[in-house]
Amino acid sequence: MPRVLSELLRKAENPELTKKPGYILIENVKGFESSDTRNELVDVLKKCHYSYKEFLLSPTDLGVPNQRLRYFLLAKQQPLIFKETTLTNEENTLLNHQILSENVCCHSNLDKNNLQEVESTPGRTDTSDINDRSKSEADIQNTSESMSMSNLESQRDIGSKTDNSVSPKERNIKEYLEALSQESFEDYAVPDKTLLRFGRVMDIVREEDERTCCFTKAYGHYVEGTGSFLQRNNSLTKKWAFEDRLDSNVTLLRLQQLGLRYFTPREVANFHCFPKEFSFPSELSRKQQYRVLGNSLNAHVVSVLLRYLVK
User: Fold this and answer.
1) Location of each CATH 3.90.120.10 domain in the chain
2) Residue ranges of region Disordered (predicted)?
3) Tens digit of pLDDT for each residue in 220-231?
């Protein structure tokens, strides 16, 4: 990405480039907002007379039960301006709350007095909140064996650090699930050897929960930090399965009773808000399907940003 951005910046500053893009949307990993490349990027945008806004957004901010915190930048060639009327009141409030910084043209004229840059203003996410939020998501996705069981159980309630007063109502995981037959469930059940070896570090969620971890391309092949696992038996807990330092055979028996399974590729696509019409080519294996889906952009997040950008 830095190489691509460097090329973009080089072209943008070229005086021979008479027709610059009217709209720009950039997505990058959390941390990019504090990089030298980002600083170079916004400097060029200002020189080229772009209004821009920067965000840190996760699908959970927009009510989707999947965590994937990412940096986004929206830019418009002046005199184009951002119109909040293109969004719902809920979306508009949420985006305004999540702005990291902005350099906007208030009116159609390009008088410098009409340009304003806002960073960490009241009502927006400040640097400490952003760091805490990113840290909480990283903690969930990189749970280690050294963590206490009580801490493991408490992680299920940690989500985005977005203020609840501006967060949309999150939907339960249940709304994104397929209706699997018993045969299909067995096909996606977590193998015993995986339960014994990685049970303590698995991120286990239930149907009524409102978050899952980011699914990577290694999901279905590796365990730790690759995504969440669904528990069917809601009457039991992961803590119960590992309490009392039980014999491995007893622990395995308890883990089996949780009824753990992988999310299907279609369910992962649902968390990414892919349309119902989306399907995989029949020749793709399950492993290939997970690889294609891993770390995908969330279609709903991008659709909200695009509506804000181009309308």
Assistant:
1) 145-296
2) 116-170
3) 999 999 999 999
Helix (H, G, I), strand (E, B) or coil at 206: strand
Handedness of CA 85, 170, 203, 151 (dihedral sign): positive
Q: Answer whether 25's CB lies under 8 Å from 74's CB.
A: yes
pLDDT in tens, 231-262: 999 998 888 888 777 788 888 999 999 999 99
Compute CA distances 6 → 3, 38, 254, 296, whole Å. 5, 10, 53, 23
Contact 230, 206 (CB under 8 A): yes
Tokens standing for 256?
């089996």
Structure tokens at 109: 């004229």
Angstrom distance (rounded) from CA 101 to CA 155? 30
- With contact defined as beta carbons under 8 Å apart, do 239 and 145 qualify? no
Task: Give the pLDDT means over successive 10-residue stretches in the chain (311 positions).
Answer: 62 69 94 93 90 95 95 93 82 87 63 44 42 48 38 40 55 94 92 94 95 96 96 90 81 93 98 96 96 95 94 75
DSSP tag of 174: G
Strand partners, 174: none
Answer yes or no: are the C-beta atoms of 202 and 155 closer than 8 Å: no
Tell how strand 50-57 and strand 99-105 pair up: antiparallel
Note the CATH architecture for domain 145-296. Alpha-Beta Complex (3.90)
Helices (H) and strands (E) in the chain, counts: 12, 8
d(CA 123, CA 92): 13
Please tell me the distance from the alpha carbon of residue 158 to that of residue 147, in angstroms, as a whole number. 15
